[in-house]
Amino acid sequence: MASQLSFTPITDFSLPSEKFPKPPQRIPIFSHLPLNSCSGYHCFKNISSSIRLSVCHAVKEQEVIQSINSDSTQNSQIDPPACSKFVLVVGGTGGVGQLVVASLLTRNIRSCLLLRDPEKATTLFGKQDEEKLNVWKGDTRNPGDLDPSIFEGITHVICCTGTTAFPSRRWDGDNTPERVDWEGVRNLVSSLPSSLKRIVLVSSVGVTKFNELPWSVMNLFGVLKYKKMGEDFVRNSGLPFTIIRPGRLTDGPYTSYDLNTLLKATAGERRAVVVGQGDKLVGEVSRLVVAEACIQALDIEFTEGEVYEINSVQGEGPGSDPQKWRELFKAAQVQ
Question: Which domain of life is it from (predicted)?
């Protein structure tokens, strides 16, 4: 069953157990984000880490609400530094991941990236203060890169790794669905701490129907089967999880490699969000909507242990309004 509400832009956005041979290389690459140059988006003043630590728990939470498909700024307040959250984004330079990271940065939520090529983070997001964004070199396909000790202190994880369903240049270097969607997810989840508050996994619609038409065509090389195996491993891990199954992805990936471009990304008229359960939705979804759904799911308690399909359609949407997202997720569960 599905529920529908309306969608506006991404601005409101806040991981670390068997030992492996060698830890990944930590590469702190990030000075304060130059958001003052963003056109049409509320920009942030630099807040020193010392002030952040002392006033974190005293400052009332505020939020930024932007329209996903408008360059006009909606005057609103921003979240204070989210000292209690440390979010690991895996697949942070991919189509959905880059939007997740950009949104976490604008929300002033401390984050870290696990990347095969850390230089991509600098290209996409610019130089960031290590207090705001850390970058670690590592590959989820290689268990030796995932020493559990590096994930100490991580509170939340958003995993949006993936590759193409059919053979392409992206498969070069053994980047196949089996290695990425199954082995990579298994290796990552096996390394995360039991203290984790939530892992959000981006999967796909159709994973329970990969032997049925039309899904069997998409699954010719196993992508849906391996995504479902990854889902099952997350479910059985004992970690608190939420699984997001998007429809066919639209809007992006963005290849201009510029944070300001990411912040100005729009979903056109397709801002309304449809959320369902039971692997029944068929359609398309904006990558911006998927990124926002992942971030919202981190904090909505009743999404723990749930699996949601998500599409976007023409109309106004919930934007980054937490209450509207709560209503969407809740309505999907009761229908």
Answer: Eukaryota
- SS3 of the chain: the string is CEEEECECCCCCCCCCCCCCCCCCEEECCCCCCCHHHCCCCCCCCCCCHHHHHHHCCCCCCCCCCCCCCCCCCCCCCCCCCCCCCCEEEECCCCCCHHHHHHHHHHCCCCEEEEECCCHHHHHHHCCCCCCCEEEEECCCCCHHHCCHHHHCCCCEEEECCCCCCCCCHHHCCCCCHHHHHHHHHHHHHHHCCCCCCEEEEECCCCHHHCCCCCHHHHCCCCHHHHHHHHHHHHHCCCCCEEEEEECEEECCCCCCCCHHHHHCCCCCCECEEEEECCCCCCCEEEHHHHHHHHHHHCCCHHHCCEEEEEEEECECECCCCHHHHHHHHHHHHHC
The predicted-structure confidence for 296-309, as pLDDT tens digits, reads as follows 999 999 999 999 99
Q: What is the mean pLDDT of the chain?
A: 79
Model confidence pLDDT, tens digit, residues 199-235? 999 999 999 999 998 899 999 999 999 999 999 999 9
Hey, where are the domains in the chain? 2-334
Instruction: Give the C-alpha separation, 250 to 315, whole Å.
Output: 16
CA neighbor of 16 nearest in space, from 181, 100, 134, 179: 134
Strands 198-202 and 241-246: parallel
What is the CATH code for 2-334?
Answer: 3.40.50.720
User: What is Dmax (Cα atoms) for the chain?
Assistant: 57
Q: Which two tokens stand for residue 205?
A: 């619609």
- Is 0.85 surpassed by the pTM of this model? no
